Amino acid sequence: MKKQSFNHMLALATTMALVSGSQAVYAQAANTQAATAEKDIEEVVVTGFRQSVLNAIDAKRNSDTVIEAISADDIGGLPDVSIADSLSRLPGVTSVRTGGQASELNIRGMSGDFVFATMNGREQVSTSTGPIAGRKIEFDVYPSELISQAAVYKSPKASLIEGGVAGSIELTTVNPLKNDKAHSINLGVRGSSNSRTSEVEDAIDLGHRFNASYQGKFADDTLGFALGYAKLSAPSVANQYIGLNYNGQRNIDADAGNEYVSEGMEMQQRGGEEQRDSYLATVVWEPSDSFTLKGDVFNTKADSEAFARGFRVKTLHSENTVITNPVIVDNNMIGGTVSGNGNTNFAVFTVNDNDSREAEVLSYGLNAEWRLDKWTINADVSFSESDGDFQNGGTRALLYNDTSVANPVRSPESITYLNKGLKPADFFASENYTNLNRIALTEVGQWPFITHNEINAQKIDVKYEMETPFITSLEAGIRNSSREYTGARGQDGYGSEFGNHPSQFPIALTEDMVKVVEFGGDLKGMPNFFAIDFDDAVAAVEAARGRDWNPVANWDNNWTMIQSGTVTEDVLAAYVMANFATELGATPVTGNFGVRVVESDQSSDGYLQIGAGAGEAITDERGVVSNDYVRNEMGQKYTDYLPSLNLNFQVTEQDTVRFAAAKVMSRPPVSQLKSGAGSWIDGEDRFNAWGNTSPLLDPFYANQYDLSYEHYFADTEGAIVVALFRKDIESFIEQITLRGVDFEALGFNVPEINPNTGNPLKPGGEYQTAYNNTKGGYIQGIELGYTQTFDFLPGLWSGLGVSSSYSYTESDVERINNLGGEEKDIGMPGLSPSNLSATLFYDYEGFSTRLNYRYREAFVANQVAVETQEVFYADESVVDYQASYEFENGVELVFQVNNLTDEPSKTYFGSEAQTGSIQYFGRQYFFGVNYKM
């Protein structure tokens, strides 16, 4: 990744200030309507994307913190697949494309682990699944049609819920009493297609979207109802080539040292269907000016049916493979011919993976607000829960000499390949992998991740208006929340990866279980393969072993029991904050200062391995009893003080300078707080444990500073913004082996006697765990914004506008990774030094159109292959286009193309020659009709 000094970055970015700027939202002058009236200009009704820009400008200018925002018109009026698409266009906000769609959001160079999210002021739980998950919000489950506003808080204030070192994202749903009309209905239907569906066998050709909403006011505008529904069904396709990490060494060129050799590679077709159903209901009662009662419910369910199938080549560096004609670059083998005799762990697998996921979020709450003279009292109770289910299943088939004999023997095979950097590799195989007489199932397995995550919360906020020369109001509040997270692993399977299980023979394939598939698109020319139906494979396994398929936690695979467990988290927070207004010389100064005090109590209940039958009798989900484990409950309590300061200097009517400083925190991934652990006792009677999770983890902490200058145009709509920021982060979590550990002192339920020998156990063993050990560092950068509407131009040219942003970020955080062979400093996950977003839009009469370009420089993040791999994501540029025309009768035609240039997602390891992955997602086309009344 490019390295530049911060001073050089600052000079470069300042130069660009006049040509870059904020995608989303900068502010029009507060007195625009008055100025318009004074000039006796005829009132013009502004609609379309231009109106969304102007609405959001107000939100930014009138905020008392550093924020970016999106208005209701922007979200409700666009066919964005999710709120993640809309937010990813904001300054300092970037997305990671999963399956071609924006999902995880990064803020100012920090990954989704450090991003906090609320809806209507209430904490949202995550649907993410996997070994390390639980807080990272998957924003693609939130449909854009049902969110009326969204804001990204880059600087906090004491009244905001703690939790975001990177920043906090607030999603807001509609309030029907604030609707301009007494009754309104919005309907929309769109068809969709993907340009690459013809390249993937069994891909779905067409998708659709539908949304309907109603807002109504009754009883003299004192009672309001809102209902909303949004439906998504979209084809999901991708051709992908994935290189695996360089975890082997061989001396393959007869020189003095070894070369690094990749684990292997994958060539796969991915397909399936993304489905999402979302519901919203809101009731607001406002019987008087002094009281409002609001209740709302939001529910969304996402169902992703996904397959990935093709070839997986593994263990190129196996000791008994023969490597000829190697291609070596920088001591790494990136190509050559690899041959095996069938008796090694080198193999060409025909793989058929089931990557289906289900995710559901339910959030509801009741809010009451009293406005009594100088007092405002707000009381809120809420509940948020999510369920995630990742099936994570698949089949492995290998090549045999003859599958019809009693004891099939694996066949010799060889491959020739050449990595081509950020393009799919050349790949050739010596054998035919579509011969039923030679291909058999060697493994059928399923390893699901199932999670349940819920939060109950109650809070009371009080505000008192004051008439003093300095303090304008005082705010205070208290919030209590209780979280429970359950993560469950499961397993069922037959056979083994390389076909060497002594008692489980390969299963012959039949014609009704398979069909021959040909690669298309950029992978065309690679060998044909068998598509194997997973359900048919499971049925064959059930018949072979005489037992039903049951992928649950079980003692035969003890890691499923150890990695399952419950985490509870009780948080009590209180704050006090003063809002003020004064003058510094002739400059008005407003802002707030305060402190938030947070008391956290976290604990986990899991299984700790003792061994030798010295534990409790614990029954697994198949009814098998083990006496080798005890229930292990551990945790800790801690108290944090989080001060914050926000200053806003109104230099002129058009110029504002903001400064903010705060201490912020993010809690560890909740699944990483589990207490389950395996163990062993060494020859010196010392107890040792492994598990890579710990309920003793501390939060992430950072001190952060923001300084921004905002200039708002006087004679037109728009702004130029320059913002500097810095975060000083104390530490990160890493996997580490601690030595000399006193487990009893840490709270482990460990035995006093070695059950194998009867000797007393000694303290001072090893603990393989997650630990707040890695040193922290700074993240600093600059953001530039330029937004302008050209309404001063004559006639139809007055509809033009531009909204753009540029950011540069750097960090001294050091992280070492060896997946590319030699150890390499990969820096801060999620940090892209340069990011650019530019939108050219045009709104005139009923016609609206816009073209958006987003560039993101290379960054580090996880890539899922056989196992999770940390890789560099290459530079990428994504272009989206949208056009619409609204008739006077309320009918609007909408057309959109996402990923207009068909930009693939590309990753690599230590260098671009070490291909990580090339994924082609295609262009997404949308065409439909909206109707408003």
UniProtKB/TrEMBL annotation:
Residues 60-167 form the TonB-dependent receptor plug domain. Residues 1-29 form the signal peptide. InterPro entries: Beta-barrel_TonB, Beta-barrel_TonB_sf, Plug_dom, Plug_dom_sf, TonB_rcpt_bac. Residues 452-900 form the TonB-dependent receptor-like beta-barrel domain. It is found in: Cell outer membrane. It holds the Pfam family TonB_dep_Rec_b-barrel. PANTHER family: PLUG DOMAIN-CONTAINING PROTEIN, TONB-DEPENDENT RECEPTOR-LIKE BETA-BARREL DOMAIN-CONTAINING PROTEIN. Belongs to the TonB-dependent receptor family. This is TonB-dependent receptor. It comes from Cellvibrio fontiphilus.
